Amino acid sequence: MIHCVVRGEHVLVQGTLRPASLHIRDGVIVSIDGLDAPIPEGAEVIDAGSFYILPGVVDSHVHVNEPGRTEWEGFSTATLAAAAGGVTTIIDMPLNSNPVTTTYEALQIKLNALGSQCCVDVGLLGGVIPGNTNEIAPMVEQGGVVGFKMFMVHSGIDDFPAVAEQDIKDAMAVMKELKKKGNDVVLMFHAEVAEPIDAAAEELKSHDPKSYSTFLKSRPDSAETQAIAIVIRLAKEYGVHVHVVHLSSADAIDMIRAAQKDGVYITVETTYHYLHLQAEQVPDGNTLFKCCPPIREASNQERLWQGLHDDVVTLVVSDHSPCVVELKRLNQGDFLGAWGGISSLQLGLPLMWTEAQKRNITIGRLFEWIAAKTSALVHLNDRKGSIEVGKDGDVILFDPSAKWVVDQAKLHFKNKCSPYHGETLTGKVMKTILRGQVIFECASDSDYGTHVGAPSGLRLVPTRTQAGHRYSEPRLPPIERLNAADPAVVKRCVD
C-alpha cells in the first residue's frame, strides 16, 4: 500500500483551519489525526509548514474542446492549467468539441480522446439539443455522464442549437423517469433567451462595436431573467434538478430565492470573472473581456456577492472558455464579432482569495462555493470537495499571503491571452496532490511552478448511478474502499 502523510498547522476540516495530519492510503484519506501523531514506517511525509492545506478545487464548468478543436484547448493543457491552479477535478462541457457530446456515440469518441493525458480527474457532461431526447438515458445509464447542458439561445456554434420550450419539457420528462430509478443527474441551462438580444441588436446597429458599453447593452439583463423564469416554471412542473450556469444578472436573484423557498430544486452558479471584473473597468476594444452573458456593472457585482452570502447562489466556477487568439479579434477591437469566453481555470483560487480578503470571507466559506457545492452538483461529493475520511486524498498547499503578478505568457492553458494579465493577486498554490501523489509544485521563489510525474487523472462517474451499468472502470464508493483498507487504520478513524 502507498501511504502518504500531509500535515500542517492550518488544515481545512469541517470549514475550520486547525492543526492536523492527513493519512492517505492508496489514494484515499483513511484518517485525520493530530499534528504530532506517529508517522507509519515508510510513509512519505509532506509538511506544509505555515501554508494552508485545503481540499482540491472542483471546477464544474470547463470547456476543454477536445476532440475536434484542440487548437483552442485540449485535455492535456486544460488539466495542466487546472493542476497549477489547485483544481483536482474538472467537469467538461459538451461543447465546443467536435463532435459535440449530444449522443452516446459522441460520448464514446470523447472518452477515447481522454486517453492517459489528463493531469487531474475529469467528469463529462452530455448535451441536450432539439431532437436528441432518446440519447439522454443511454448517456446516463450506460455512459456515466454527470449531467446535461442546454442552451436557450444560440450557443455560438451551429452544431449545438438552442432548445425550444417543448425540447426542455421532453428532456425533463426523461429526467423525471431517471430520477424514479435513482439515476437523476442535473440539467444545466445557459439561461438567456433570444428576443431581448435580437431587439437590442436592432437598436445598436449604428453603435460603435469597439465600445464595451455597446456590447453590454447587446446582452440585456432581461434576456437572463426571462429565461430563468421559464426554467423555474418548468422545474416546478416536472420536479427535476435544474441549474443555472454563469449567472451574470443579479436581477434574477429575487425570483430564484422565491423559487427555492417554494421548493423548486434550482441551484445557481456565478463565475470568477463576474465577481472580480467590472464593466466600468473594461477598456474599449479589449475583447479579452468579452463573455456571454457579459461582465456587468460594479453595483450588479455587489448584488451577486450578496446572493452568495444569502445562499441563493451557491457555486463559483471558471466557465473556462478558450479559443484561438485570432477569434478574439483583438486587432479590430470588435466586441460584437469576437468570440465570447474568458480563460480562468488556472487563476480561480487566487482571484477568489484576493476578493475574499477585501470582504472578510473565510477560507472555509470560500471552499463551500468552489469545492463542496461544485462536487455535490454532479454527485461526486462522496469522494471530492472536502477533506474527510473516505474521500480521495486530493489536497493543495496554499500560501495565503503570497502576492504575484499574472503573466499570461507563463500560464499553462494553450492560448495564452488573459484579461487578468498584469494584475497582482494574493494567494499562490504551492503544491497540488491528487490521491496522495504530488502532481504540481511551486518553489517559493517562483510564481508558476512545474508539473510532477506522468498524468494520473481518471475519468469519474457518479457513484450513485453506476451499479450494474457498463461504465469504463467505475470507481468504488468510499465505504468499500475503506473496508479494503488496513482494519487497524479504519478502526482508529471511527473510534
How would you describe what is shown here?
The chain is of the alpha/beta class. It has helices at 75-84, 104-114, 136-141, 165-180, 194-203, 212-218, 221-238, 253-261, 272-276, 298-309, 348-359, 363-377, 478-483, 487-494, and strands at 3-13, 16-25, 28-33, 44-47, 52-55, 57-62, 87-92, 121-124, 126-127, 147-151, 186-190, 242-244, 266-271, 315-317, 395-405, 424-434, 437-441, 450-451, 459-460. Strands 1, 2, 3, 4, 5, 15, 16, 17 and 18 form a nine-stranded mixed sheet that branches. α4 (165-180) crosses α7.
What structural keywords apply?
single chain; 495 residues; alpha/beta; nine-stranded mixed sheet; six-stranded parallel sheet; 14 helices; 19 strands; 21% strand; disordered C terminus
Question: Quick gist of this model?
Answer:
With 495 residues, the protein is α/β, with parallel strands linked by helices. 29% of the residues lie in helices and 21% in strands.
Task: Please give the number of β-strands.
Answer: 19
Shape: globular
Distance between the termini: 22 Å
* Radius of gyration computed on alpha carbons: 22 Å
* Uncertain ranges: 465-495
Q: What percent strand?
A: 15-25%
Note the total helix count: 14
Assembly state: single chain
Mean pLDDT: 93
